[in-house]
């Protein structure tokens, strides 16, 4: 059980790293005028940007869950 959990944890970890690296940079929208206007207007994410955002959230939740599970199993 512990070995399967560790393997799944490594897969989730590598997936999280890859998804974060593949996300487009946000430096263009960090300006005071540009970034504020986009966030006030409710700019929606489209295409791969939305997919990467959702994948990041799901993989981060899976990473935390497997980390906690490994800590409990390791006792």
TrEMBL record:
GO CC annotation: plasma membrane
Primary localization: membrane
Membrane topology, as annotated: Multi-pass membrane protein
Alphabetized Pfam families for the sequence: SecG (PF03840)
Function, as annotated: Involved in protein export. Participates in an early event of protein translocation.
Family of this protein: Belongs to the SecG family.
This protein's name: Protein-export membrane protein SecG
Organism of provenance: Candidatus Fermentithermobacillus carboniphilus
């Amino acid at each position: 059980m512990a070995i399967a959990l560790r393997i799944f944890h490594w897969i989730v970890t590598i997936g999280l790293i890859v998804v974060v690296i593949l996300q487009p940079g946000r430096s263009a929208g960090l300006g005071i005028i540009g970034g504020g206007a986009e966030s006030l207007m409710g700019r929606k994410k489209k295409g791969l940007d939305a997919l990467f955002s959702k994948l990041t959230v799901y993989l981060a939740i899976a990473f935390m869950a497997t980390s906690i599970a490994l800590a409990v199993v390791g006792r």
